[in-house]
Design goal:
- The structure is a single chain.
- The chain is an alpha+beta fold.
- About 20% of the residues lie in helices and about 45% in strands.
- It has helices at about 10-25, 90-95, 145-150, and strands spanning about 25-35, 40, 50, 55-75, 75-90, 105, 115-125, 130-140.
């Protein structure tokens, strides 16, 4: 008897595998989801006047990479840290969430580890299977993401 596993037909298996893997090796974090429809924007400059965040939602994620740069300005130095955060798509589905640009992620095991979500993509281990959500997060010392949460 031959058993074949079809990647295209059994995508739920890949989703569960990704969720279990991230549950085992992931780091605790909290996600604040920006609600664009309830947030006000300046009609002239299209900048946020007040932002409404829903959450925090506790999740697990893997931090795949981290780049730090320091720039000197007249006002002082500005530190920028860019990270790549990997979440299981199954976890978002269970919470009824969709991560989007503008959301804020806090790494709970890292003091001051707040990151703005600046890019979101869905990736997978097999072609056509988006079982993980990859977010590029950014921390800038001059414009701390923690400030966005405190002001909402």
């Amino acid at each position: 008897m031959t058993v074949r596993l079809s990647i295209e037909s059994d995508t739920s298996w890949w989703h569960k595998w990704a969720a279990e893997y991230i549950d085992m090796v992931g780091r605790r974090c909290q996600l604040w989801s920006l609600r664009q429809s309830e947030s006000e924007r300046d009609p002239l400059y299209d900048e946020p006047l007040n932002s409404y965040f829903e959450g925090p939602f506790e999740l697990l994620c893997i931090m795949r990479s981290s780049e730090k740069s320091v720039e000197a300005h007249d006002e002082g130095k500005m530190t920028t840290v860019e990270v790549e955060l990997v979440f299981a798509a199954e976890h978002f589905k269970a919470l009824g969430l969709k991560v989007a640009v503008g959301d804020v992620v806090e790494m709970l095991d890292e003091p001051g580890g707040f990151y703005d979500v600046v890019h979101v993509s869905h990736e997978g281990l097999a072609k056509g299977v988006g079982n993980v959500v990859v977010c590029r997060g950014q921390f800038r010392s001059k414009f701390s993401p923690a400030r966005k949460i405190a002001e909402s």
